[in-house]
Amino acid sequence: MEKEQYLGVSVSPYTYEEIIADLKKRIAAGEQSTVIAVNPEKVITAGRDPLVKELVNNSTYQIPDGVGMIIASKLKKGGIRERVTGVDMMGRLLQFAADEGHGVFFYGAKEDVVRTAKEKLEAKIPNLRVAGYANGYVQDQEALVEQIRESGAALLFVALGSPRQELWIKDNMANLPNVKVFQGVGGSFDVYSGKVKRAPAFYRKFGLEWLYRLLTDPKRIKRQMALPKFLLKILLQK
């Protein structure tokens, strides 16, 4: 399946199931893969920052995390059929790891957040093996990379905020040959730890998480303006 382009940014038209199936083949072949969430805000940022655009476009899977990406694909008669959110992609990958016997490693967030996320996920997903974790305030990066390497984890979830987490992955992939799947997960540890509540199912079902976040935190209005700006640019694009 060919990737779609929106304002020079690549987006993968894969569903959750298609990504997992493709990853299974790539892991069997010994290949490393990266997963990055793409939403209108990130596309707008990529238009201003060549480094962000490079990090997105060089990823293996650019998942369409945001209803704006679905709308843009429909406007351009693309093939994106469903949202693939970062937090839910992480959940699918954890289930995949449990099913296939792969170890996982969590890096990022505050100590209590990442530890609680680890404990709750281990309790929720049978056979999940969290090979290790580290908070986002580790100073000795060489020791951290060695810890991840020695853990034997095949999947690594990095929560440092974007684009810092993607830069960290880019800089350390070569030193972590045992890790086959890297995902920058932003605030997902906060969600899985229970510190941050997800939007109710109704909002998630209809792609209205942005509305829920705006209603509960009106200060986000400036960030939310990226959606109409993005769609206008898509409409005006030749």
Strand order of the largest sheet: 4-3-8-7-5-6
Distance between the termini: 23 Å
Instruction: State the CATH class.
Output: Alpha Beta
Low-confidence stretches: none
Portion in beta strands: 15-25%
Assign an overall shape: globular
The structural domain count equals 1
Q: Biggest sheet, open or closed, and with what strands and sense?
A: 6 strands, parallel
| Average of per-residue pLDDT values | 93
What's the total number of strands?
8
Which class do the helix and strand fractions yield? alpha/beta
Look up the CATH topology.
Rossmann fold
Say which CATH homologous superfamily is assigned: AF0625-like
CATH architecture: 3-Layer(aba) Sandwich
Function: Catalyzes the conversion of GlcNAc-PP-undecaprenol into ManNAc-GlcNAc-PP-undecaprenol, the first committed lipid intermediate in the de novo synthesis of teichoic acid.
Catalytic activity: UDP-N-acetyl-alpha-D-mannosamine + N-acetyl-alpha-D-glucosaminyl-di-trans,octa-cis-undecaprenyl diphosphate = N-acetyl-beta-D-mannosaminyl-(1->4)-N-acetyl-alpha-D-glucosaminyl di-trans,octa-cis-undecaprenyl diphosphate + UDP + H(+)
Pathway: Cell wall biogenesis; teichoic acid biosynthesis
EC number: 2.4.1.187
